[in-house]
Amino acid sequence: MSNPFSYIFSCLFVLLAHGTMLFNVYFNGSYTDEHQVFIIAAAVIGLDIAYFFLMLFFRQHTYNVDFMLILILNMSNIFQSCFGAVEFDYRHYITSIAALVASRVGYHVCRNHKWIQKQKIFIWIGIAILGAVIFAFTGSRSIWITFEKFSIQPSEFMKILLVLACATSISEQQNKHNVLGFSIVWENVILFFIAAGICLLQWWCRDLGSIPTFMAIYAAGFLLRICYPKAKFSRKTLFIAAGAVLLAGVIALHFAPDYVRARVFVNIWDDTEGDGFQQSRALIAIAEGGWFGKGPGKGALSSVFAHDSDIVFASVCEEWGLLFALMSVLMILILLSAPLFNPPRSYFHGTMAAGVCAAFTAQMALNIFGSCNLIPFTGVTIPFISTGGSSMAASGFMAGMLIAAQSPEFHKPGKKKTTKSKPKSKPKSKASGGSRSSSGSRSTKKKAASSGRRAAV
User: Fold this and answer.
1) Nearest alpha carbon to residue 207 among 256, 241, 251
2) pLDDT tens digit string along 413-431?
3) Closest CA to 289 of 372, 402, 233
4) Which residues of the chain have pLDDT under 50?
């Protein structure tokens, strides 16, 4: 480790942040059994220390994403254990550990850009297989695959594959083909149909809230393809692409289901028991929480459906205050800004990081603005803060992609074969057959130089 003092300082900062939150729970929280507070404290501090120790075994260029990840995840564990009453939420704690494990998997999978580039066709096949699974097994136009005791949301993992599909298509931007006066890169055409197919599938599943996230990922990849050296996208192509997107939006709004159009044009205060129920309750909770909140466990929004996922921002505002809710969002933005502090070392990793940042930013914007009634309610989660197994695992994997962008691997480590070289023997003098003294060698050089001059004359 290049700077152990910085590592130790970061560990202490994370422990101090979580310790301050736990003190707030103990002194201001609403609980009947103080043992629950001690259980939460032991789980949070224990996970902190365990992760700090395990990180020592991973050699990376930087650990800033790792520290921000463990900071946000344990903040989320404290939030989720206090909604309505202080009680340890072991399910969210398990999914947080799953997110940490997934981040390690994402880091190792995406480190070597040459290896992942060779898996491009398998990424496309994976998208097709996952789409077929969603179409066949999610039930009656649903977004969940339900088993006996748990359920999976496959579309969350589709985000990972779309980010990788955008990143692996970067290297082909200079392989253009002239078709009817247009310079076309075939992989861009394939990627467009992949993104369009995913959006149509989400529309079929009635998961319209996730479509902006997929569009944000594709838009980030498209922007990076435009900026790729010597890509030279013509203005005609860009105008056609912008017009196609606008036309698709108009068509989607026209053919959207009735409940979607009702959410777009509803006045929540005229329908507080119908389409405006969650947003009206969320706004009331934000207003009652004020800047510093009612206190952990003292919120009333916990009785509203999806208080811990779709409107989690309002739940945090009610119990912890708007100031603390904005601070938690700021932590996620700092995690996403890691590529600005330590620029990725390949164009592939830069595109991958841009896709992850686009996905997380779009999800946060949809959740926060929807809770505040600035846009129609979408039901999209905030990464790492909202509860949910599929969302946490997918978000953790994408955090690992950010770590890989900061600490990429360009050459596979391997043992170099060492060959024993024989010591070179010194050339012997023809005159004596042995070595001469330094003075003798200098006199020989002078004689050879003088004879060479006489021969030249």
Assistant:
1) 256
2) 455 555 555 555 555 544 4
3) 372
4) 413, 429-449, 451-457
DSSP string across 337-381: THHHHS--SSHHHHHHHHHHHHHHHHHHHHHHHHHTTSS----PP
| Model pLDDT for residues 289-306, shown as the tens digit of each residue | 999 999 999 999 988 888
Torsion angles phi and psi, residue 24, rounded to 5:
-65, -40
pTM of the model: 0.83
Which tokens in the block code for residue 134?
């969603």
Report the length, in residues, of the chain. Answer: 457
- How far from 77 is each of 18, 82, 208, 300, 386, CA to CA, in Å? 10, 9, 28, 19, 10
Structure tokens at 216: 């944000």
Q: Which two tokens stand for residue 242?
A: 């912008």
Query: CB within 8 A of 19, min separation 6: which ones?
Result: 45
Q: Of 71, 56, 78, which is closest to residue 338 (Cα–Cα)?
A: 71
Q: Residue 263 to residues 19, 113, 216, 299, 366: CA-CA distances in angstroms?
A: 41, 43, 22, 26, 14
CA dihedral in degrees (103, 108, 110, 115; nearest 10)? Answer: -160
Identify the DSSP state of 141.
Answer: S
Region of 413 (left: φ > 0; alpha: ψ -120 to 50; beta: rest) is beta
Cα–Cα distance measured from residue 440 to residue 363, given in angstroms and rounded to the nearest whole number = 83
Residue tagged 């949809």 (tokens): 366
H/E element, 432: none
Contact (Cβ atoms closer than 8 angstroms) between residue 262 and residue 275: yes
Answer whether 319's CB lies under 8 Å from 83's CB.
yes
C-alpha–C-alpha distance, residues 161 and 175, integer Å = 23
Q: How far apart are CA 395 and CA 157, in angstroms?
A: 9
For residues 109 and 397, give the distance between their C-alpha atoms in angstroms, rounded to a whole number.
10
Helical (H) or strand (E) element with 151: strand 151-152
What amino acid is encoded at 347 in this protein? Y
